[in-house]
TrEMBL record:
Organism annotation: Claviceps africana
Protein name from the UniProt record: Myb-like domain-containing protein
Lineage, top ranks: Eukaryota, Fungi, Dikarya, Ascomycota, Pezizomycotina
Coiled-coil residue windows: none
InterPro entries with a match to the protein in the record: Homeodomain-like_sf, SANT/Myb
One Pfam family cited in the UniProt record for this chain: Myb_DNA-binding
Residues in Myb-like domain copies: 2-50
Length: 58
């Protein structure tokens, strides 16, 4: 389920923001990418699942 569509450049920006801010700062990541925090979180978990293997979620 997608909350928002992400273009290729937005997807890359999201990945960069996750690496920069860690994957639990969704509000900051959303502001950086220009998308809602929940949309960023959902998209990341669907498209970059390997980033969440060593984390316990939020």
């Amino acid at each position: 389920m997608h909350y928002a569509e992400f273009a290729e450049d937005e997807s890359q920006a999201l990945l960069n923001a996750i690496k920069e801010y860690e994957n639990n700062k969704w509000k900051v990541i959303g502001q950086k990418v220009g998308k809602p925090a929940k949309a960023c979180e959902q998209y990341a978990k669907e498209h970059f699942p390997d980033l969440f293997l060593n984390s316990k979620g939020r």
